[in-house]
Amino acid sequence: MAYPMQLGLQDATSPIMEELLHFHDHTLMIVFLISSLVLYIISLMLTTKLTHTSTMDAQEVETVWTILPAIILIMIALPSLRILYMMDEINNPSLTVKTMGHQWYWSYEYTDYEDLSFDSYMIPTSELKPGELRLLEVDNRVVLPMEMTIRMLISSEDVLHSWAVPSLGLKTDAIPGRLNQTTLMSTRPGLFYGQCSEICGSNHSFMPIVLELVPLKYFEKWSASML
Amino acid sequence: MLGGECPKPCKGKWPTPPFDPRFPNQNQTRNCYQNFLDYHRCIKTMNRRGKSTQPCEYYFRVYHSLCPISWVQRWKEQIKDGTFAGKI
What we know:
A: 10 strands; B: mainly alpha; Arc Repressor Mutant, subunit A
């Protein structure tokens, strides 16, 4: 989950998020290089006594500072498109889980076999146990099997919400009357936190999402116990 | 435990609805609705012809996995009341 003094993205839990992390590093480096170059040139210009009042043309430098940015943009666009297409690859999910946004909680439905559904409310700050995370913990976590491709179908029962889990690189809008699909694949077990990401009323900040990724055997035991 | 009975001609347990190339994009609303319609149309046609409704189980499995429970309940109520908008 997010941690104090965090500067970058959360650690990646899915292959797509790993790609996004590296892409972000790559693009941010380009941004820093360009910004520091520009800052340096500005500082040079402000601290020189030299003047040149008769510039007529500057064909060479104009060519360079047209071609070079074009190359830089291509260097950003190609990895970006690669990841975009990677996200759209057809995969065969092993499990389908539905989540419905409500004001102000999420409900989850696992209906591939039996009908399993439950609500997931935030734990109020006054009821937190020591060590639990404020505004992030829920009463019923979404237990899922790790290392398996899971189809997530997201919708809403009232207003717009958005189901987001940053460490998996997921954010999908929950729109009433529409069923949005996203694919979830975690490379490791653990707890992964997210928060509602579309303004939905007074308690928009108080309807978090907690995924509990466990080995398949534990998932099967849990789902049997929940029925 | 994962997976229930698989409708024919599938072997083994029902995992989850497979990729449907008719609905390749993010918006799966129509996927859910179409399978719901197809199931009821299949049942109606098989019953009319006096045949077994076993082949209709596939559509049931798909819509049951994909459609939110509240949507299915609402549509079933509408079918019962005769106010369902779809053609079955």
